[in-house]
């Protein structure tokens, strides 16, 4: 495996792991605040990111590359409210999209079409996740600081997410 690509894929393993732990911290924050729907949403997002991470670990190993399981920074644990929580969620997804685009760019530059092909799954997945994060933040921006709006958002978030997934 090309050394540059190997390094980029290892970085990507770290970004997916970071997102997974960040979403676990978000789920736990929401759980403690009584936002059960939001907590379920982030518990499940955390699992998804773990799947993204493991898929990369397996791929690098299959291609006889060297995987380094990374050390992670402590995730942000407290939030001013749902708006900040979902702003951070969108920020995190936009960052991951940027990194994936960078891997794709390098694959083309170095003519590594196998990895390029493998990464297409991430491109599609990322498009959906970023769009979902944007939709949820848009809804929260409409709601503003209205408490009953937040109550309904928490009640309906998993239905909104499911409807988004089936589009
Ligand atoms: Fe796998 Fe949403 O980053």
Explain the overall architecture.
The chain has a single domain, classed as Ferritin, core subunit, four-helix bundle (Ferritin, Up-down Bundle), CATH 1.20.1260. The protein is elongated, with a radius of gyration of 17 Å. It has 167 residues and is an all-alpha fold. 81% of the residues lie in helices and 0% in strands. The mean pLDDT is 96. The chain contains five helices and no strands. Helix 3 (82-109) packs antiparallel against helix 4 and helix 4 packs antiparallel against helix 5. MU-OXO-diiron (FEO) is lined by residues 16, 19, 49, 52, 93, 96, 126, 129.
Give a summary of the structure in a few sentences:
With 167 residues, this protein is mostly helical.
Question: How much strand content do the residues show?
Answer: under 5%
The total strand number stands at 0
Category from helices, strands and their pairing:
mainly alpha
Q: Please tally the helical runs, counting DSSP H or I stretches of 4 or more residues.
A: 5
Write the SSE topology:
Blueprint: H1 3-33, H2 36-62, H3 82-109, H4 113-143, H5 147-165
MU-OXO-diiron is lined by residues 16, 19, 49, 52, 93, 96, 126, 129.
Question: Characteristics of this structure?
Answer:
167 residues; mainly alpha; Ferritin; elongated; binds MU-OXO-diiron
